[in-house]
User: Which sequence fits this backbone?
């Protein structure tokens, strides 16, 4: 067991990483501690994404880590490393982790999985270098859980172009992204297809959603597409139906579960540190039984969730993981996260509702992670179908 493991890594899961992977994790951990952590409360309070973070992440140089041949420093990064890094980003700030995950996960993986070789070579090097930032536009104002069958955004082919019309909502990074992967239903065959819409396209607008009580650093946008013309060369050539899209969502849903673990770890570390320093009745509150109970229950959720995700990563590396595997992880880990952030916020008492102690941010951001990439109910139905053989979807 290494000596520099996180306090929350009670079973030393980080020791499962290879030596070169641990070096990358250490570098990311130091980067987040020095470059990102000191600024997040300021921007969370303002509800703005700090554009300077993009340059800092560009210098980190890891956006292409998951994509062999596109800027990655390893021959092939394991899914355990990718998941642990997703955890690490959200351990410091879930909003920043989401910015990075949308770009290097949802957007880049859509191009990597759905594009042909020419499209990969055209877009991925710039995305890996973070010279171009990506966004992923699927959810709609009237379609969340039912977007697979109820997508209203349409695509109509006219010669060598496609004309897109519709609206998207809750689209992270969209206010400043250079490349937006837009999903639309082909009017000709009623199949969902993917299109890369480039920044500045006529008819494309992205308006920042205001008034959020969580994920305030993420600039979610409402997108409107009015006769947006996209060349056939920008249609993702290997996406022919929503079944192909599901291949992308299967991988990214597991990433959200790792993000939820990061929120748990960050909240637990804050609570543990506070319990050792905060004194009541002439002693640190860490000496009280009920405080220790909150901490141990939180640690139990963290340890069990980490074990589940480590095994999920192994199944991914073996190429045998299925929709129900990632759905169970997303549903279960985010539910445990909700418990942990509530217990940890409780430990702070009144101090738990102000940004000064960070825990309020973790508590608020957890609600967003609990809902996106498939609600608990929808992921439960996916797993329920797998284990019973019966579909309970309406």
Assistant:
């Amino acid at each position: 067991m290494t000596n520099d493991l996180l306090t929350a890594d009670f079973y030393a899961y980080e020791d499962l990483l290879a030596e070169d992977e641990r070096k990358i994790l250490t570098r990311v951990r130091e980067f987040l501690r020095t470059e990102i952590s000191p600024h997040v409360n300021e921007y969370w309070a303002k509800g703005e994404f700090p554009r300077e973070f993009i340059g800092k992440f560009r210098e980190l140089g890891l956006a292409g880590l998951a994509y062999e041949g596109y800027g990655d420093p390893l021959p092939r990064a394991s899914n355990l490393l990718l998941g642990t890094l997703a955890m690490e980003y959200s351990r410091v700030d879930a909003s920043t982790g989401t910015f990075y995950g949308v770009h290097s996960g949802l957007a880049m993986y859509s191009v990597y999985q759905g594009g042909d070789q020419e499209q990969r070579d055209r877009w991925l090097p710039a995305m890996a270098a973070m010279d171009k930032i990506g966004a992923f536009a699927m959810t709609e104002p009237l379609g969340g859980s039912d977007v697979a069958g109820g997508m209203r955004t349409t695509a109509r082919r006219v010669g060598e172009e496609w004309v897109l019309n519709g609206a998207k909502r809750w689209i992270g990074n969209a206010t400043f992204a250079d490349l937006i992967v837009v999903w639309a239903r082909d009017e000709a065959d009623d199949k969902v297809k993917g299109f890369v819409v480039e920044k500045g396209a006529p008819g494309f607008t992205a308006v920042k959603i205001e008034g959020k009580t969580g994920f305030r650093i993420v600039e979610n946008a409402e997108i409107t597409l009015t006769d947006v013309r996209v060349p056939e060369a920008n249609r993702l050539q290997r996406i022919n139906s929503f079944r192909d899209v599901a291949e992308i969502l299967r991988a990214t849903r597991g990433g959200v579960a790792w993000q939820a673990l990061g929120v748990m770890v960050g909240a637990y570390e804050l609570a543990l540190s506070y319990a050792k320093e905060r004194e009541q009745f002439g002693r640190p509150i860490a000496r009280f039984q009920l405080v220790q109970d909150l901490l141990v229950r939180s640690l139990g959720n963290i340890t069990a969730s980490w074990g589940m995700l480590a095994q999920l990563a192994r199944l991914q590396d073996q190429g045998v993981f299925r929709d129900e595997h990632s759905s169970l992880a997303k549903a279960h880990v985010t539910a445990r996260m909700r418990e942990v952030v509530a217990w940890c916020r409780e430990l702070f008492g009144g101090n738990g509702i102000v940004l000064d102690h960070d825990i309020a941010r973790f508590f608020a951001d957890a609600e967003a992670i609990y809902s996106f990439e498939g609600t608990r109910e929808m992921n439960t139905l996916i797993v329920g179908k797998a284990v019973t053989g019966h579909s309970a979807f309406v």
Notes: The chain has three domains: 13-128, 134-234, 242-388. The mean pLDDT is 91. The longest helix spans residues 242-277.
